Amino acid sequence: MEKNTDTRLAIMNTTYQLIAEHGIQKASFALIAKEVGISKPSIYYYFDSKNDMIYQLFEQFCSEISFQHFFNAEHFTQEQFSTQLIEVGFQMIQEQANDPYFGNVMKEFLSLAARDDSYKGRFIELQQDYLKGFEQLLLKAADWSLIPLYSLTEKAHILALVIDNIGNFMMLDDTVDYRNIWKTAVQLVFLEDGLHG
């Protein structure tokens, strides 16, 4: 018998929302099943355990905030490179701002990462992907003579740290002009003498 992907998606989406509203501990299979409109044992058809379901949700969450999900190097052109970099950052910021559950779910996963090395390791991997990803992206810009090679790694890391910290601050304060902060960071990277010391 083939598993119903719509039901699985409904379980995942409902769990995401319930984690944001009640926390991981209180998002029980009984509560999830009630919200989805299925029996509690039905969840075991899709997931081996609550831990399995939470980790699969976490992996999906990580995939949706990954560097590659947003900053796909193949989509960048020589003519519009810095503009595209700004716009993709805007898209990332806007997606997070539009998701009312994102901040609370991120806090729950960060709390898990403080106690569980598999979650912690995955978050570290995500951060490393941003550091390396921006470096590869800026190497492409350097190949097109859009930026010089000097301090390229540092510039890439500045972009990674800025976008990461924008995400962190958005969980706490929505009054900061995050779009202009990102735009300024990108513009500084593309200034000929911007970061050359």
TrEMBL record:
<dbReference type="Pfam" id="PF00440">
    <property type="entry name" value="TetR_N"/>
</dbReference>
<protein>
    <submittedName>
        <fullName>TetR/AcrR family transcriptional regulator</fullName>
    </submittedName>
</protein>
<dbReference type="InterPro" id="IPR001647">
    <property type="entry name" value="HTH_TetR"/>
</dbReference>
<dbReference type="InterPro" id="IPR050109">
    <property type="entry name" value="HTH-type_TetR-like_transc_reg"/>
</dbReference>
<keyword id="KW-0238">DNA-binding</keyword>
<dbReference type="InterPro" id="IPR009057">
    <property type="entry name" value="Homeodomain-like_sf"/>
</dbReference>
<feature type="DNA-binding region" description="H-T-H motif">
    <location>
        <begin position="28"/>
        <end position="47"/>
    </location>
</feature>
<feature type="domain" description="HTH tetR-type">
    <location>
        <begin position="5"/>
        <end position="65"/>
    </location>
</feature>
